[in-house]
User: Fold this.
Amino acid sequence: MQRRRFLFTGLTLATASLVGCGGGDDGDAVVLATRRDVTGLSASERQAFIDTLHGMKQTPSAYRAGTNAYDYFVSAHVEAFESHMSNAHRGAGFLPWHREFLMRFEREMRRVSGDPGMCLPYWDWQRPGSYQSIFTDDFLGGNGDPSDLYLVKTGAFREGVWAMGGDFDDTPDEFPDTDGDDVPDIVGPDRLSHRGLTRCYNFLGQYRDSLEIIDHYMDRYPLGRVLNYPNYDAGPFDEMIARSEVDFSDPAQVAAWQQLMADSTSISMRKYLEVRLHNPVHGMIGGQMGTGSSPNDPAFFLHHCNVDRLWDLWQQHHGNAGYPTAQQSHMSGLGARLGVYAEAVRVEDTFDLAAHSGVRYEG
Ligand SMILES: [Cu+2]
Assistant:
């Protein structure tokens, strides 16, 4: 807490709790709900979150026929992840795509719980020790059982009470370290099971029994660095397309690609946030979190809520400076439609957190 306060000294945080409703005919003010730090939730609020997610598994999706309100998000993420033509990952659309994803998830939480003010909490993984009150027996559960496929056997989402949704790939290979960014590959045998949620804490291929590894990792990447970036992104704006043009059997091309990624990460807030902060958290938790079907782990939503919060903080300083134009990227630039969603959602529809999601972050 101390460290965070210190870093935020002098920053202007959102203070207004009321905003005019831009699109409304009646001019009513809209009350912004507040997304709070998960470690500050009361026992009953934690239980309400658990109950709501379980309720979503039992309720048909509002977004897609034939699936439940929770599993829709697993499937949508898998679809976005598998398509290199999606702008959900490894490109400028990463933050807009996931802001829309979280807004939809929260909308479903509210519908299922009947609580119109319910919000996703965020997990501030840059605050040392924050994992300790989340990955507990009375909340998200802990590490998987190494003697049994790394199945999670503790907490409210343990094997037997929390079903895996959607199709998933049994060979996790997400976030390979082929881009010179010091972020570890996920290595080892299969860590997924249709029996239930898996987690396999690891760092640099070494399996651990604690998420303390996250504290050590984040020491190298303090919060202030995100806010210092003047520009949202830097080319290549669609890394998967650029990467597909690299011949990885040619050492010279590999070296050039790694240099390009290192150089562009040094000037792109989005690449820094996605690749150096977001990806490793997925990888260090492992199991489902290390794959495209990561929304199977409820930790996904707390994690991404924090990613979105960091983007919001950055926007308070820099607006949308450096977001690619349509000319710079037809796939992720201004005017581009976010992939996978049935409705036409444009990247810029998500830029204003309050107008788009109807929320603010605690702070
Ligand atoms: Cu994602």
